[in-house]
Each structure stands twice: as structure tokens, then as C-alpha cells.
Amino acid sequence: MSESITTSRPRLGHSVVRANMAGAGAALTIAGFLLIVFQFIALHAALVRDVHVQARIVGANSVAALLFNDRRAAEETLAALEASPSLRAAGIFSALRKPLALYQHGDAAPVRAPDAAMLRESDVSTLTTLEVVEPVESERRVIGYVVVRSSLSELYMQLLGYAVLTVSVGIGAMGLAYLVIARMRRAVLQAEAHLDYLAHIDSVTELPNRHAFNERLQVSLKRAGQAGAVGLLLLDLDNFKVVNDTLGHNNGDRLLRQVARRLNDVIDQANLRAVLCRIGGDEFAVIAELSGRAQIAEAEAATLAEGLAKRVLAALAAPFALDLHQIYVTASVGVSLYPHDARDVQVLTRNADTAMYHAKNRGKNAAASFTSEMDQQARRRLRVEADLRRALDREELLLAYQPQVRLRTEGAHDAPISKANVYGVEALVRWRHPEIGLIGPGEFIAVAEETGLIVPLGLWVLRTACQQAVRWMREDGITLRVAVNLSARQTRDPALVENVMDVLRETGLPPHQLELEITESVLMEDIEANIALLESLHAAGISLSIDDFGTGYSSLAYLQRFPIQKLKIDRSFVQRMPGDGEAIAGAVIAMAHSLRMQVVAEGVEDPEQLALLRDAGCDLGQGYLFSRPQQADALLAWLNRLDSPEDDGSAVFADGEAAPRASLPSSLAG
Ligand code: C2E
Ligand code: CA
Ligand code: CA
Known about the structure:
By secondary structure, the chain is α/β, with parallel strands linked by helices. Helix content is 51%, strand content 20%.
């Protein structure tokens, strides 16, 4: 599975060496050439000087010979030149430039009498020879001339020796330069490799990182071409944050490495050309080339990819050992297929991501394959996200109220409810979107949480619900408690208590008529902070209840520490009545009563459930059996119908028929 990382960047190292060596070579060549030219000039000047000196010595020695026109003496003087082999020829001439004596070395040509030009220059040089003339004087009168010719061969020999030296020094220097540059190149290559590594490899797991993931996915899609198929699995660990927060980052990193190892084992066994990447904190990706270039049916490709996803989930099932802890890790996996779901890297990744979120929403530890419906949902979610901000300003939000009814009343079990037995209402928010229509809180509360919009939204719900309760009290003479839901983010808002107090003051609702509902899981997120929060709300006289009880993981010991007055048994348990839900409801009710809490059963839908809850001693009930959530005026009408004499018993369980149903389609009313 581990293919080597390929990079498209040119190797810097080679060009560095080439450029540096070429530069050094050129510099040395130019320097060498200049040195040799200067050396030639210097040697030549020295030779000219020497030959002049020799000619002058000969001249001094031939004064007498010239004065007395003594040929023999002149010839003897010249014969002394034999000792200097580079002097090829010489001559002594009278003042009238008649030769007195001539000397030649070997078969060299004799010198000729100096002409006017020669006398002016005093020396003449060719490529091979140098000829100088020196006048001979006696008593300030020129009595003759000495001409000496020297060969340049010795000068060339010297120059050659010098050139050989220069070139060898140059070669030596180049060698040295090569060593230095080669070392530099090695350093550059190393740095390059390291940069490449950092850019492509995740340092914790040593897997390809997000950057490398994109490159590799691109390569795989290209390789698959028109016929082949590629499966992309995006995998998100469900509870990694908890491990990181409770056991520390070191252990978090160790866990990631262990997860990576197990995933790689799965991939190795899968017999596919596949690669595992770590593309985020707790996100991994598997790129699996399902058929190479070969044609493959979509169904077959999907089966392969889903099989791999299942094996990935199975591989994580066994606990991980960290120090003395046994950690259970689950993941949500999203699968999307090239070319069936998308033809490019971006869309394929986005689709796998969408599928992954679906798996997560379906209760985690699950895999989901991308479908086009998911895409529509994702688009709708984006729309909701984009429009929600304006919803508040444009007054598109509204509240529905669902009554809570006292169950522990005197008289027969099936006696109609009276107005007096309606204990209060729960306020439930809805959004009337101008184009989409009514949207339920299940769709937008989570979005509001993520964007932080829940804080102003929650405040609006609180204020509106309190205003409504006051209006019912003042205008209709009905006193109802009103329960308002608090989200996780709201409980972490440091201004919450102050805001709640402000709303109570503004609206004039007595604090004991307000109830705040916090879900069990939110309560357990930060126990100490929530105890402090609930204490201050409780101190202000506000009632508090635990929502969706039984779905979180509260322990009794903790429950005792919260100043809670009520438990709301989650709908899922009531739904399992008659059946195993009874035992759970019974236990919760007994436990709550022992802690002096009241119990509300949520989602009561049929009379049988109601009877069982009454038998179990449940204090309050809420559900479609009594009424669906409905808008304020419809709820008032429902209340007023309860005690009206023309109602027979059947109307007792009415759910606020006409008006609310019309304005709130049943699918959205709860
Ligand atoms: P919840 O607090 O558990 O609210 C009860 C939900 O159960 C409501 O759904 C209600 O319509 C529904 N329900 C009531 N009786 C029955 C029944 O007999 N059968 C069935 N099947 N369902 C019933 P709704 O209104 O869709 O609200 C869903 C969730 O949205 C609420 O669950 C609550 O967690 C959240 N929510 C609603 N309004 C607000 C709000 O203003 N702020 C916050 N933070 N959350 C809210
Ligand atoms: Ca609630
Ligand atoms: Ca609930």
C-alpha cells in the first residue's frame, strides 16, 4: 500500500551543482587566461631589458675596435656571445652602418645593418624573435651600432611552464570547488527532502496528510480513467475529543497512531491498491482503487467499497490500550464512488463528507454511502444555515406550546382532564421560512448552535414565551407554567443568568412560573460549571428540569448534586410501553421520587400508555394524546374547550384540531 511520494517540483540540487561548477569554471578560465597574458607581457619586457644590456656590454667592449676599425677585436668580442644560446645573431656596425663584425649561432640568419626605423624604435619584435640596436659612443659621438637578435623560444618555454602551473592550480581549485558544492548540494537535497516530508506527511501518524491526500486522489482518479472505479472513504472518530480532553494530547496522539496501524492492517488485507491518509485531527481517508483501469459495474464497486468500510469499523471494535486504560473508539464512515457519485476530487470528497455526516447523525459507529438525496439534504442544510440569520430579524420564528397535564388526580383513570389539571406548557420553536414553509427545530437548532445564533434565538424564545404566559395570566385569567428549552451553547453563555433575570423583570412573569429544560447530555458535559449555573437559577426561584432523561449517562450520585425539580422521561421509553419501557419508567419514577423530583412522561400517544404511567405514579404527562404543540390562541381555545359542558369525554383527548393543525402541519407539529 505504501507507494513512494512523488513530487512534481524540479530537483533543486542538480541545478545548484551545475550552475555553481559552470560559474567557477568560467571564472577560473578567464583568470588563468589573463594571468598568462600578463606573464607574457612581463617576461617579454624583461627580455627586452636583458638584450639591451647585452648589446650595451658588447658596445662598450667594441669601442676600441670601432675606433681602430679592428675587425678581429670586434669578432672576438662577439664570439663571447656563444655562451648565451638564445642570442641567435649579432653584429657591430660602423657609424655609417657598414658591418665591422657579424656573429651567428648555428644556422641563424645574420643581422642586418639598422635602418632608420629600427634606430628610432631601438627594438623590433616578431612572433619568434626580438632584435635590439644600441649605439656605441665615444666622447659623446656615435661611432657605431651593435645589433643583437634573440630568439623568443626560451620565453615561450617559460610561459608554457607557467601555463601548466596555472592550469593545474585551476584544476585543483575546480576540484576543491566541486567538493564544497557537492557538500552544499547534499545539504540542499536533504533540506528539500525534509520540506517535502513536512509538506506531505503527518508528523503524528507518519501517514500522508491532507495535502498529499488531494494529490493522491487526483492521481488515483487519473489512473482509473474512464472505465475504472475509485472508492473514497472518509472516516471520523466519534469520541476522540473526549480521549484528548481526559487523557491528554500525548495519549491522544498515541491513540491516533494505534488507530492508523489498525486501519493500515485492514487495507493491507483488502488486496486493493489503497492508501490511508490522515486529513484532520481525528479524520482519516482511504483512497481505494477498486478495479485498476478495468471496467467495473457500479454495484460491484459499491459492494467493494462498502465491504472495506465495514471492515474498517470492525477493526476499531476491539479496545485500544493506553497506559492502564482500555479505550473504545468508534468511527463514522462516509463512502463515495468515482465516477458514479462524482468525477472530480472536490466533489468526490464533499460527497464522502456528506455521507460521513449522515453516518454520524444516524447514531455514529456506522458507515453510509453517498446518495443524491443526501446531497439535497446537504443543500437544504446550507440554505437553512444561510437564511437562519435573517429569520430572527424578519420575525419568521414562532412558538408552539404543548401542554403538560397532571396525571395524579383523584377519580377514575379515564376521567376527562379539566383545565385545572393543565399544569403548564412547553414552548417549542418553529420557523416559517418564506419559501420552504414550516421548518421544525430538529432541522435548525443544531445549525443555530454551530453558528452561535442560538444565543439570540434562545433569548427570543425565552422572552416570547414569558410574554405569552403573562398575557394568558392577565388577559385570560389562566396561570400556566411555561417551560423553555436551553441548548448546550446557551448554558455556556456567561450572560445567561443575567439575561433570564432581565426577561423576567421586563415581562413581569413570576420566576416560579418559568421552568428551564436542560438535556441530560448537556448537563453532564461540564458538571461543576452546570451545578453552579443551576444553583444561581434555582436561587432566583426558577424551576429546572432534566430533558430527555435516560438518553444520556447521568449517574445518580451526580443527579443528587443538581438543584433539579423535575425529570422528563424520554419519549423513546414511553414509546416502548406497553413493553420493556414500563420497567425503565417505573425505576426512573421511583428514583426521582426518592430524590424528591417530579416526573414528566414525554410523548404520551395512547390511552394505554397513559394508564400505565398513572399506575406507575408518574406526575405529569405531555404528548399528542393530550395535544400537539399549537400556537398560543389555538392552545387557549383547546383549554377553554376542556371544561365546556357540551364536550363529551372524547374531546378531552383532542389535539387542538382545526386551527393549529391547519397552521402547523402534523409532520412539523412535533
Ligand atoms: P424536546 O425538548 O424533547 O421537545 C419535545 C418534542 O417532542 C417536540 O418536538 C414535540 O413536538 C415532540 N412531541 C411531543 N409530544 C409528542 C408525541 O406524543 N409523539 C411524538 N412523536 N412527538 C411528540 P419538536 O417541537 O420538533 O422539538 C424537537 C426538539 O427541538 C425539542 O425536543 C428540543 O430539544 C428542541 N427545541 C424545540 N424548541 C426549542 C427551543 O426553543 N430551544 C432549544 N434550545 N431547543 C428547542
Ligand atoms: Ca424539552
Ligand atoms: Ca424531551
